[in-house]
Amino acid sequence: MDDFILSLFMANDKLRKNTLYQVLIGKHTSSVLCYAYFHDLLPLFSAIPDLNEEKFYQKLTDLMDEGRLKEEQGQICSLKKAKIPNLLQTPTFQSLDFFKFGRKEETCWRSVRFLLQAASFLNKENNYIPLENAPNYTQRVRVFIHRYQKDLAKRLYYETAELFQILSEEQANLLAQTLSGYQQEGAAFFQLIPDRYGRFPWSSLYRSAAIHSFLAQVAKHPEYILYEFLQPLFLQNFNQSMLQTRKLVQQGYNIEKVIKKRKLKKGTVQDHLIEWALIDPAFPFERFLSQKTKEKLKKLPIRSFTYPFKELERNFEVTFLEIRLYQIGRKKELLC
Asked: Are 131 and 117 contacting, i.e. CB atoms less than 8 angstroms apart?
């Protein structure tokens, strides 16, 4: 756990310990999401949902006592003299993206394994022990078997082979060894994780990194059967209420009409828009930021996300939503 915590400070001068904890457990508020985004921690949002708060703070205290971290004005920072590992930036873990895939990663991978198993037995043998028997798995697999029938096994074979060729050899081998099918029985992840990653939280992060890498590649191929199969689960990774707000805005509703239609508070709709801006590279910033407002906000300090909002609103005569959207767009390099 020490190496993991220290790795979080590699790209950050200072982090608020309370908010850092909320990022790791996945507290779903726009303020926590934005904090994660601006500090390059969004891929680790909800990475350890069961993290014990007291033990986490005690671990920070221990690292400060050891002279590896220090606290300044309520924020934690690393000491220059401390040798801090950078494991999260190694190729093994760079594919982690809990924000996009973490909520449904297990369901996605179990679904893929079951679909591949069922397809491998088509026209060969009916008497086998299925990997899954819950309706939420079996019903969807039956639909795809019926939809694609004889072509299913062949197409899935080529899609999976192409995806594994794109992944690193390490991650492709890990995932491939968990697959079961005709004359093949897959292993459990705990049997395959290297000893050097055997301790918490690296063992779960190692597995997640491989799954996230696979899912990220599937998401790039809407022509794949696997994409069609997983798309509903991809959407379930996100705030469903936010997706409803997004749909209305895409249909032409403005903020006031969305509030009236959905009977939500203005702050809730603003939170939805902020979260949408975080997840979507095609977010329509121009719908909410006039050219005049963008000209004003060009003068924002680069690290304006660390400033109090009241100060920014007063100095630039803009709204909270405009400031936040501009900050996000600028970090995405979509706004200058």
From this structure: yes
Residue 120 and residue 125: Cα distance in Å, rounded? 9
194 vs 206: CA distance, rounded Å: 9
**Domain extent listing, the chain:** 2-87, 101-236, 239-283, 285-336
Q: What is the spatial distance between Cα 39 and Cα 115, in angstroms, rounded to a whole number?
A: 38
Predicted TM-score (pTM) of the model is 0.91
Strand partners, 181: 184
Polymer length of the chain: 336
> What CA–CA distance (Å, rounded) separates 161 from 143?
23
pLDDT tens readout for residues 160-184: 999 999 999 999 999 999 999 999 9
Closest CA to 230 of 96, 98, 122, 116: 116
71 within 8 A of 189, measured Cβ to Cβ: no
- C-alpha distances in angstroms, 147 versus 141, 235, 258? 10, 22, 38
For residues 60 and 1, the answer to whether their CB atoms sit within 8 Å is no
Question: Do the Cβ atoms of 218 and 162 come closer than 8 Å?
Answer: no
Q: What would the pLDDT profile of 80-139 be if each residue is shown by its tens digit? A: 655 666 778 888 999 999 999 999 999 999 999 999 999 999 988 788 899 999 999 999
Cβ-contact 326, 289 below 8 angstroms: yes
d(CA 273, CA 267): 10
Chain position carrying tokens 């997004």: 246
Element (H, E) at 70: strand 69-72
Beta strand 69-72 with 15-16: parallel, antiparallel or unpaired? unpaired
Q: How far is CA 115 from CA 25, 234, 334, in A?
A: 31, 16, 39
Determine if residue 254 is left, alpha or beta; phi over 0 gives left, psi from -120 to 50 gives alpha, anything else beta: beta
Q: How far apart are CA 295 and CA 305, in angstroms?
A: 18
